[in-house]
Amino acid sequence: MTRAGLAAVCALVLLALSDGRAAAAEGFAIVSNEKSGNFSVYDLEGNLLRTVPACGRPRGMVFTKDKKEFLVCCAEDNMIGVFDTMTQKLVRRITNVLYPEVHYLHPNGRHLYVSNEEDSQATVFDLETGRMIAAYDTGAEPEGIVVTEDGKLAFVASEAANLLHVIDIEKQEVVKDILMNTRPRRLALTPDGKELWVSAEIAGMVDIVDIATLELVHTIDFEYRGLRKENITPVDVLIDSKGQRAYVALGRANHVAVVDVKTRRVTDYVLVGRRPWGLALDKNETRLWVTNGLSDDVTIVDTRTLKPLKSVPAGEVPHSVLIWEP
Fold this sequence. Notes:
This protein is mostly beta strands. It is built from one helix and 28 strands. The protein has one helix spanning about 5-25; strands spanning about 30-35, 40-45, 50-55, 60-65, 70-75, 80-85, 90-95, 100-105, 110-115, 120-125, 130-135, 140-145, 155-160, 165-170, 175-180, 185-190, 195-200, 205-210, 215-220, 235-240, 245-250, 255-260, 265-270, 275-280, 285-290, 295-300, 305-315, 320-325.
């Protein structure tokens, strides 16, 4: 190669690195690809920046409290992988976590609540020591898990048992099992802490539980012309920071439903990719990121117009998405 050619190549490399640093400074999205075992990293416009090795079957992801690291359920490795947020490199492992699916960080920033899908348990790990500090028996196939903002209660959905388990954290025991509609999957608390929304996949609806009474108080159904009822299989539920609007990924219906939280009425349906699974909002809540598990892509939706802006390729079976912004 001539000196001029080498200089041109170096310039292109420096330009790419510069663009990558700029994108990182502005923010980026990380998608866990369950089957291909890697992360797809995008700038906030949806341009792919890089693909990074992850772990065996990466699924649910959460940031640590300071967002310097993020925690990944590595199901086939039976561990929680701790990754550096800026580089997406594995920095340490929390081991002996049996088949983790999703997890939730306690408001204290130290205790991680994990659903262990094949072990019929919810477990709690201390992030500082890496040790398990509690374990709770659940019904078969636990998945969705959340902790209330006051840190007093944890909820775990058992898919196969159709139960929502209520854990009293101070007592360290399951204090109630609430019968839900068929196959409860994911959970979302309203910002005021008064309601818990639970997707019921096979029933094709969302159940609402009153936190004060721990009773199922309302059910939201989904009906849309052209969508067969059996294809409406909701998974992820996301409620905006003001508690005004909820988004529900409708699975095999290939749409995201938009729900008015106050009235509990469905106001719109947005066509995305095949089998939308995971949801995330950017900081300004003007962009909704949707992982589509059967079309191996991610759809970015403008929340002001409720129109999809673009769909971008991901790895195989994209599961969850995290968005980092300064």
